[in-house]
Every structure is written in structure tokens, then in C-alpha cells.
Amino acid sequence: MTATLQKKICMLGAFSVGKTSLVRRYVESVFSDTYLTTVGVKIDKKTVDLAGRAVNLILWDLAGEDDISALRLSYLRGAAGYVLVADGTRPATLDVAMSLRGRVEADYGPLPFVLLLNKNDLAGQWAIPDGDMDGLRTNGWWPRATSARTGEGVEEAFMDLAVRTVR
Amino acid sequence: MSTSSPDPLDWLLRAPPGDDGIDRKALAGLFLDIARSVRPDLATGLAGAPATDIRLEQLRTLLMGHEIAVLARLSGILEDPEQLAAAVGRILPSAFARAQGDARLGQVLAPSLEKATQTSVRNDPHTLLNILYPLIVPAIRKSIGETIDKTFQSLNESLKYSLTLRGLAWRWEAWRTGVSFAEVVLRHTLVYQVEHVFLIHRHTGLLISHVAAENAATQDPQLVSSMLTAIQDFVRDSFSGAENQGVDTMRLGELTVWSEPGPIATLVAVIRGKPPEDLHETLGNALARIHAERHQALEDFDGDNADLADVEAELTECVALRQQRPQRQPFGFPWLALPIAVAVLLAVSAWGVRRWQEDRRWDDYIAQLRAQPGIVVTSTGRRDGKFMVTGLRDPLAIDPRQALGAVEINPADVVASWAPYQALDPVSVLRRLQASLDPPSSVALSIEGDRIKADGSAPAAWLERARAAGRVLPTGAPTLDLTAVRNLDAPADRRWDEYVARLRAQPGIVVTEAEQRDGKFLIAGLRDPLALDPQQALTEAAIDPAHVSAHWAPYQALDPQIVLRRLQATLTPPPSVRFAVAGDRIVAQGSAPSLWLERAHLAARSLPSGAPVFDLSAVRTLSDGAIGRLRDQIQARTIRFNHNDPLPAPGQGALIDALAGELKALETLAPIQHVVARVMLTGHSDSVGSGTFNLSLSLARAEAVRALLRKRGVDPDLLAVRGAGNLEPVDPTGTEAARAANRHVSFTVGLEERP
User: Fold this and answer.
1) In the beta sheet, which residues pair with residue B649?
2) Pfam families recorded for this chain (chain A) (predicted)?
């Protein structure tokens, strides 16, 4: 086995924000989605190239829960970073993402993360006010608008996170 | 330094007007020191004298400058705890090394070490656990694992195999090789191969290293590794709650996944086949070695396994673990012994077969002898290769030696001893009478019940002798009945009279004229063709037919006996019917098919007047009895269907079960009653839909019911099917209830007289 660099990354977000769609279309996947409902987690892999070295992001896709207390935060143990996903057409999911971040921070301390506002392709239904986006930026959250359908912003988001976990 | 007065040495210190080049200060100090040396109390007495004198310092510096610096540094080290600790620390290892020979060192250190260990355990037991892990785990594994698991496993396997053919072969192998039976069993049964070994970082679930066997299929091991960790977490969270405990065995068909947890990394082995329990120990030891040798690298693992590339070698050793089915050894089988063994086996079995056949023949022979009249077998057996038989034998019974030939037993092999006796069974008595009386050819002796009856005609002298012999038969023997033997020596006319009297007594014969004229006999009359043949009776009476002239006119006798015979000849009643004469009536009894009964009634009606009455009232129709009841039961059955459905409606199963039972009863009853039963299954449909559709649907329903009955064991030959479509409705009104009633299969039972 050749030497590789792996990082454990968790995908977090409210129910049906498109985490699994992101994972399904842009990463390597060998396990069935049914693991999500049975075990509550599904493992996928995203390989990004970082200055000539391949970094394998081992993605733990956690079952989306609107009731965040039900989320198995123990799965975050050992994570090098996480991806927070919210639905750009449903502002409530952004609140869920923020509270998830709070819980993760409380349990595991500050970890690198990226915040994805998914479903950017549904521009007509975009419901996050520009003011809120600016507010997030001033907090240093740097939200990224992505689309699981078109792939917009997905590669960059994973690359960004990879850079910050390896640093 | 203070120079305030009055200083006793001031004078000395004060410089003279002309510099004499002397260092007065140093000189003064010197004096002072000398004074102090002489009187130590002088210093206190000399108030104002400086406590320390710079000159002395200077002198010291002059005399021992280097040593002072060394001393200062040493005292600095001694006084500063940190420096002292560092200094002692530097020499401590070599100090311990040198003191190793001194037993006191251990005694001195022991209490402190104990205290330190206690504190460490109190603070965080994991630290010590992690330290001791590589030592303790293998030891514990060895003691517990080996004793318990192996015991159980070998016990199980021993029980499983101890009584099979293979088990016996393994016992032989164990005995031959001097290995315990359990080990032989394990060697043969535990066929396994370690296909994958994953070394997984416990904290992150990331893969540290993975090795697969050459032929093992695999998914992305990095993903598998994390998924395994996730599942472990899931199980731990869901069921256990205990820290550091998770799934240690997963099984999927032929694959077993064993997880050996270590403090930092977990070793997961995917094993195909049946791994032995001591494989746990092997894997656990490998994991312990990895922890011991690469502890730091494991602790520092952050996803980059470049530093841990060398653990792959350890894992490769684990993957090499396997137990294959042992190859058959090409040598060692005693081929030369094989023909000898086969020959011995053949000889033994041939001897066994021959002996068994002889015994069977002997048993047959003895059974034959026992069945013989006049022979009583009292004992039989086999001794020194010879058959023994003893018993009683009537001299007139068959020769037992002759019977030997029939069963192919060599008479030389038989030792028989027969005591003579006189048998009283009818056959023996008959033989004896035949031998002693020597009856003429016109006399036939036969056994009739417990009598021996003589028939025919004999001279008076023989008759006399026979009567005498009959009288002297021993008690218990059958009697000799000579009444049916005509005396040949009686006068011819007397015999003629007897003959005529016999004919007159015969039913169906009417003698109208019987005369004796010129040594000739004349007889005339009527004779029913079914009556006794007069010609035959003539021979029996020993009358020469040449002297007889007979004229018989045929007629139909109305005598009950003859009518009975005639009815029997024409009606050929089934065996279940008996005819009997009762007074002037002929009574038939039993049971008969209705068709036969119809014929019989017709015959009864067409009997001529004056003939006896033919009474058929005691004959039951077959259909009236059990079979008739069965027929009615079956014909009352109906199986319902849903609209457009060729299969019976739900809930009809019990009905079909009951029907099948009745049909099977009909099958068994029919041959007893001498009838042939046929059951027609008629399918019906409602009137919805086209005629042809309904016809095929109705036929399909009948076929379906036949198939269901056949499945329940009813002989399909009994059953015929037809479809009536909607043409034979039970209820033609057209209401929904009527349509539902019309969707059915009905049953018709035909009972015919057996040809």
C-alpha cells in the first residue's frame, strides 16, 4: 500500500438540504444510501489534488436531522474538518447549520469547515437575503453558493476545506 | 567598604606623603586577618572593622582564583533545585546502572515506585493500561483464550466427529501420529484464509494500512475502514455504552470479520472459512507488536501514513495465515496390502454367504418336515458343521432323506434320529388303511372333515374286511365311513331298485315308468336339463348300461332346487348375493348393483305360475348402503367461485378437503361392492360474458377442482370433467345472488355394475 494522506471530513446539515446529492454526484461512493437510514452514516471519498499530492477526504455523510439533538455527534470524533450544508431556498436550514456548528464547536473545539448554500441553481427561489450573506462573511464564515445539480462551487469547496485541514 | 573613624587601622590605610609603592590596603587586611587568626573574637571587638575585607578577597583571588569559580558554580548548582535536578538527572541512569548489583537499590526504590504507580492509576488508568497493553494482552489471551476456547472448540468438534466414519479415520490418524484427536479434528475442519487485514486508526477511523490476499476481491479499503469504524460506533452508541467495547465479530455467509481493538489502532481481519479461536491470539500479538514498535508514529498519526509504511510487513504476515484442506499423501498408503485385504474380505464374505444360504435351506427343510403328516420334529440344531434333527416318524410318512434332495442339502451333512410312532392324523390313517385294506379300484378313500369316507362299489368280502378295520381303529383316530360303498355282490335287481329310488328322489327328474323285463331294465320319465344325469348314476350303481333302456323327455321343473339352479345360471348373481331355498320360496340375500336388481326382478316376474316365489326383498341396492350415502353426499357438494375466477373462492379449502375424503372412500368402497364408480365434475359459470368465454371458464373451473382433488390424493381416473358454461344454471333469475350461486362446480356420481 502506497503512502496516502487521508482526512476525515463530516457532512452536516438539516434534512434534505442536498448533502447526499452533493456526495453522490461528485465523489466516489461504494456503499448504498440505505446505510444512512440504518446506521445513520455513509462513507464516501473525495480525492483532491493539493500541490501534486493527492488528499483523500473520507466523507462521513451523516443522516440529516432537523432535530439536531438526535444527530450522532459521536461520529465527528477524529474529524479533521466538516462541511456544513444548508439549502439556499430555505433560510431555516441555515439556522440549523449554524446551531450544528455551535454544537460541534462545543464538543470538539474549533475545526476547519466550509459552509455550502446548496440549490444555487434554483436562483428564482433563493431566499437568503444578501444582508445575511454579508453578515456571514463578516463573521469569517465565507459561505459558498453551490449546486449539486450543476456542480457549481462543489470542487472549490472541497479543495478549500482540504487546504485548511492539511495546513 | 567603610572608612569611617575611629578605625584602628586607619593609620595604616592612610597613604604617606611619599608613595612607597606598598599596597597598604592589602597589607592592612593581612594584618587584620593575622590578628583574627590569633583571636577570633577580635573582629567583634573591633567595631567598625569591615566584616569582609576586600583585600582578603583579592588575596584569595590571587591564591585560588580558579577554584573559587568552580566552587561558586558548584554551590550554585547545589542551591538551585532546578540545576541540581538537571545535574543529578544526567548521572542518574549511569548511577542506577552501577548500583544494579546492590540489592538495596531495589528495596529503596520500591516504595516510591509503588506510590508513583498508584498515583498514575488514580489520575488516568489508561496511561498505565496503554503501557502495559502489549505485555498484558497476549498473556491474558494465552491463558484464557487457549484454555476456554480450545476446550470448547475441541469438545464441539470431538462430539461432532467422534461417531462418523471420517471421525474414525481421524482417530486412526491421531493414534498413528501421536497427536491428540482434537488437534487432528481441528486440522481437518478449520479451513480458512485471512483475506484482508486492515489497520485502522481508532480515533479517526482512517486507514493506516491494508493488505489483501492475492485472490481477494476488495472495495476501496479506505472507505471500508471508515465504514467499519462507523458501524462499530453505531453499535457502541446503540447497544453498549461501555467505552472501548464494540463489535468484535461480524459474520456474513462464508466471511467472518474479526476486530481486534488496540489502544490506538484496531486490527480488522476479513477471514473466509472457519477460523480457529487461536487465530485471535495471532492477530492480537501482531497488533501488540505494532503498538510496541510504532507507538509514537501511531500516536502522531494525522491521516498521513508515510511514517507507518513498515507496518505493512506485519499485516502481510497475517494475510498469509491460512489452513488448507490437507492434500492426500501420495505415499504411505499400503497398496500391496490391498489385494490381500480384498481377497480375505471376499473369502470371508463368500463363506458367510454360503453358510447363510445353508442355514436358510435347512430352515426350509425343517419347515417342510414339520408340515408333513406323520412327522414330529422335536429338536434341531447345528453341531461340528453337521445339521442335527431328532423327532418321531410314522413309518408311512415320507422319507425325510428324500426331502433332503429337494433342498440341496448333502445327506452326509445331516445326523437324523427318528423314533417310530403311529400317527392318528387323517392323512396317516388314510395311508395306513390304504396299505392294510388294499381297496379295489372301484373304491375311493378320501378325507372328509374328521372322517375317512369310502365311495364307490366293492365286493361284499372287502366291505366286511373294511368294516372290521374301521372298528379296530384306535381312539382318537378318524372314523371310517363305508355307507356310500355299494355292495357289488348284492343281486342286480336290488341294485336296480336302489337306482330307481335314487332317481325318484332327485329334483327335476320324474320317473313315469320303471320296469324289469327279460333281464333288461326299462326306465322312462321327464328330466329337467339341470337335473342329475341318469347315465352317470347308472355307472355309479355298477349297472351295465347295455342292459338298460332309458327314455327321458325334457321338461322345465318347478322344483325350488331346480328353479334356483336355473336362476343362478341365467342371472349370474354377483358374489355379494346368495340364493337359498326357504320352504317353497327362493330367497336372495346381500347387496347388488341396481342394474342387476332390475334384471333379477324381471326374472322373478317372468317365472311360470306354480313355480316358487323368487324373493328379492332382502337384497339391498348398492346405492342404498354406504356407497349410496357417499354418492348422495358427494352430489350435494358444490364449490363456489368468484366472478371470472377459475380458482375456487377463498375459504373453499376445507370443503375440498372433505370432498377429497369422500371421493377416496368411494374409491375404496367401489371394488368391494363390485361396482365401477365415475364422478363427473361439471363446471358452471354465471351469465355475464360471452358463451364461449363462459364455456372455457366453466371447464377451467372443473379442471381446477380436479387438480385440487388430485393434489389431495384422489385417483384422477375416477374423475371426469366437463364445462356447462352458463347453460345449466341452478338459479336462472339473474339476480346477483343467483349469479353467485351459478358460479360453481357440481358433482355427479355414476355407479355401474362391474363387467
Assistant:
1) none
2) Ras
Q: Is the pLDDT of residue B7 over 80?
A: no
Q: Which of B289, B283, B263 has the alpha carbon at shortest distance from B271?
A: B283
CA Rg value for chain A: 15
Segment B515-540 shows an average pLDDT of 85
Best interface-test mutation with A: which of B237, B250, B304, B311 has the largest number of A CBs within 10 A? B304
Q: Is the ipTM of this complex over 0.90?
A: no
Residue A61 has pLDDT above 90, yes or no: no
Q: Does domain B127-323 match CATH 3.30.450.30?
A: yes
Distance from CA of B281 to the nearest CA of A (A): 25
User: How distant is the alpha carbon of residue A95 from its chain centre?
Assistant: 15
Task: Return the domain boundaries, chain B.
Answer: 127-323, 339-420, 426-487, 492-554, 560-622, 625-753
- What pLDDT sits at residue B227? 82
Condensed to tens digits (0 to 9), the pLDDT of residues B708-724 reads 999 898 988 889 999 98
Contact (CB<8Å) B219/A30: yes
Model pTM? 0.38
Quick check: A1 pLDDT over 50? no
Distance (Å, whole) CA B443 – CA B460: 12
Q: Are A19 and A64 in contact (CB under 8 A)?
A: yes
User: Which residues on A lie below 8 Å from B220 (Cβ)?
Assistant: 28, 30, 45
Strand partners, B526: B510, B553
Q: In what order do the strands lie in the sheet with B675-683?
A: B638-640, B744-753, B675-683, B719-723
- The answer to whether the Cα torsion of B244, B245, B249, B250 is positive or negative is negative
Question: What's the start-to-end Cα distance of chain A, in Å?
Answer: 24
Chain A residues bordering chain B (beta-carbon distance below 8 Å)? 1, 3-8, 28, 30-31, 35, 39-45, 56, 58, 60, 72, 74-75, 77-80
Q: What cell does A115 get? A: 459552509
Alpha-carbon distance of B369 to B375, in angstroms, equals: 7
CATH class of A5-166: alpha beta
* Cβ neighbours of A6 in B, within 8 Å: 206-207, 222, 303-305
Domain locations along chain A: 5-166
Using one digit for the tens of pLDDT, what is the confidence trace for B590-615?
877 777 888 888 888 888 888 888 88
CATH topology of domain B426-487: Alpha-Beta Plaits (3.30.70)
- CA B161, CA B148: separation in Å to the nearest integer? 20
Per-residue DSSP letter, A123: G
Residues B591/B625, Cβ–Cβ less than 8 Å? yes
d(CA A72, CA A79): 13
In chain A, where do the E strands start and end? Answer: 5-13, 28-29, 41-50, 53-62, 81-87, 113-118, 144-145
Q: How far apart are CA B425 and CA B423, in angstroms?
A: 6
Which residues in chain B touch residue A77, judged by CB atoms under 8 angstroms apart? Answer: 203-204, 233
- Is the pLDDT reported for residue A39 higher than 70? no
CA torsion B539-B544-B548-B552 (nearest 10°) is 10
CATH placement of domain B492-554: 3.30.1340
Whole-number Å distance between alpha carbons of B172 and A64:
63
| Terminal C-alpha separation, chain B | 162
CA distance B96 to B113: 14
Which of A39, A79, A80 is opposite residue B234, by nearest beta carbon?
A: A39
Fold held by B625-753 = 60s Ribosomal Protein L30; Chain: A; (3.30.1330)
B339-420: in CATH 3.40.50: no
Over residues B68-127, the pLDDT tens digits come to 788 888 888 888 888 888 888 888 888 888 887 777 887 788 888 888 888 888 887 777
- In the structure grid, which three cell numbers stand for residue B82, read together? 532546578
Note whether B226 contacts A28, CB cutoff 8 Å: no
- On the question of pLDDT at B245 being above 80, the answer is no
